[in-house]
Write a structure and sequence with these properties.
This protein has 458 residues and is α/β, with parallel strands linked by helices. It is built from 19 helices and ten strands. The chain is globular and about 70 Å long. The C terminus is likely disordered.
């Protein structure tokens, strides 16, 4: 039997407030508390809570036949716990069924994997521990920020002990190959890799309510028909979506909840597909080949690359400045600085600075709270400047009192009698059997002191 791997990403950033140049060094609160509270509550009401209730009902109805997977960023968990803890409780109910797998990712939904292995490993460990604490099981599957993946990143993930990783089935990587198989990392074959079927996933994420789309309206019967025309030997269809697709990006009125409510029954009655989690697929499927990804890919935009976050000089400047402070932050013990360090790494801050106005331009403008990428850059750099001042102050060596400095300073051991005059030394000729002496040595030096020794003492 072939498999459907249904996975949802849950993420919300801590949005920054308008932070002026004159705030630098004066005000250390960076976040728009009103917007963060308002948005997380709205999304929870429209999306997270009804979607969780729907998934719980499907699990109760179909038992072990229906399974689903999630990754929830640390920044989303922090906001949910602060503003809508009932969402955390509803995820716990899903976890208790045993039919849900929770994946690991970077705690801050960051881009640390691109250049800072130390920070990347630290965040993944922090996130995996948080997931285990909340939901009772340590993750074995990894999903990097925005499905970013390369051979080197996969190697790091394998070294951390994960056995499966999710990424995008990008056309320029696959070529003639299909995303509907299990693959493995090109450097460490022990890491299995699941590839997103972007066509079917995007039909749900972006095109579902588009009335200009030739396939609108999309029904479960039509969708399962598409599944059935996939070659019989292809083993798994990976549907990877933002969880906000249900109720936020695609409103309830579009019929998105009804679609997912009826999807399992249509799949079970009209196809030979079943629902499985990445962990189950790890045990059931063997890789058909390694997948070579020398340059990082993602699930963003038509290009499926990193240009949404690292595509212009603004983004590179902000990214470089931020991570140049990683060694200092690592040695800083201030918990507020540690918290801000995480939140300032969130990939959304760099996404807002994107200057792409081509195929994905409308998407970038829709999710951007700033009037322009340049406003996003200026605001972020103002915040970052204040943060850097705080880190410098927190890691500045403590000055000792003057008397302690003198005690700590190495003592000079020059003896008084070793001091010579500043007058030129006259060498007196003596008999061969006698030593050459310096007659102008200050009072206190022995008369038989050799010339060479006196010069050395100068």
């Amino acid at each position: 039997m072939r498999s459907i791997c249904l996975y949802f990403q849950v993420h919300q950033p801590f949005r920054l407030r308008t932070y002026r140049f004159f705030n630098i060094g004066q005000d250390h609160h960076y976040y728009d508390d009103y917007q963060n509270r308002h948005i997380i509550k709205r999304v929870a009401e429209k999306s997270y809570l009804p979607a969780n209730n729907l998934m719980l009902d499907l699990i109760k109805e179909y038992g072990k036949a229906f399974k689903v997977s999630y990754s929830i960023s640390g920044t989303a968990l922090d906001q949910l716990e602060r503003y809508v803890p009932e969402v955390i409780q509803s995820f716990r109910q899903l976890a208790d069924t045993g039919q849900v797998e929770f994946l690991a990712e970077t705690y801050a939904h960051s881009l640390a994997s691109l250049s800072n292995k130390t920070e990347f490993v630290r965040q993944v460990e922090l996130h995996a521990s948080r997931i285990e604490e909340l939901f009772g099981k340590r993750p074995t599957t990894f999903r990097n920020t925005e499905l970013i993946y390369s051979d080197k990143i996969g190697e790091m993930v394998a070294e951390m002990g994960f056995h499966t990783m999710l990424t995008e089935g990008a056309k320029h990587i696959l070529g003639w190959k299909s995303p509907n198989y299990m693959y493995c990392n090109n450097i460490n074959p022990k890491l299995k890799v699941l590839l997103r079927n972007f066509r079917l996933s995007d039909d749900l994420t972006f095109r579902f309510s588009n009335q200009d789309w030739s396939e609108w309206p999309l029904t479960t019967e039509k969708f399962v028909k598409w599944l059935n025309v996939i070659e019989k030997q292809e083993e798994v269809v990976n549907l990877f979506l933002d969880y906000e697709t249900l109720g936020e990006h695609q409103w309830k009125e579009t019929g998105i909840f009804d679609f997912f409510k009826h999807l399992p029954s249509t799949v079970f009655s009209n196809s030979n597909f079943s629902f499985n989690t990445p962990e189950q697929l790890y045990h059931e499927l063997q890789p058909v080949s390694a997948i070579s990804v020398p340059h990082a890919i993602s699930w963003a935009d038509e290009e499926r690359d990193l240009t949404a976050w690292r595509g212009n000089e603004l983004q590179d400047e902000a990214y470089g400045k931020l991570y140049s402070y990683e060694p200092k932050v690592r040695n800083c013990k201030d918990p507020e600085i540690s918290r801000d360090w995480l939140y300032l790494q969130t990939s959304n801050h760099f996404y807002y600075m994107c200057t792409k106005w081509f195929s994905a331009g409308e998407v970038h403008k829709y999710f951007n709270p700033y009037g322009s990428p340049y406003e996003a850059f200026i605001n972020y750099m103002n915040v970052l400047s204040d943060f850097m001042i705080r880190v410098d102050d927190a890691t500045k060596p403590v000055a000792l009192p003057a008397n302690e400095v003198e005690v700590a300073r190495p003592a000079k051991t020059i003896k008084p009698e070793a001091k010579a005059t500043t007058k030129p030394v006259k060498v007196v000729k003596v008999k061969k059997s006698e030593e050459k002496v310096a007659p102008d040595v200050k009072k206190g030096a022995k008369k038989d002191t050799p010339v060479k020794e006196v010069r050395k003492r100068k």
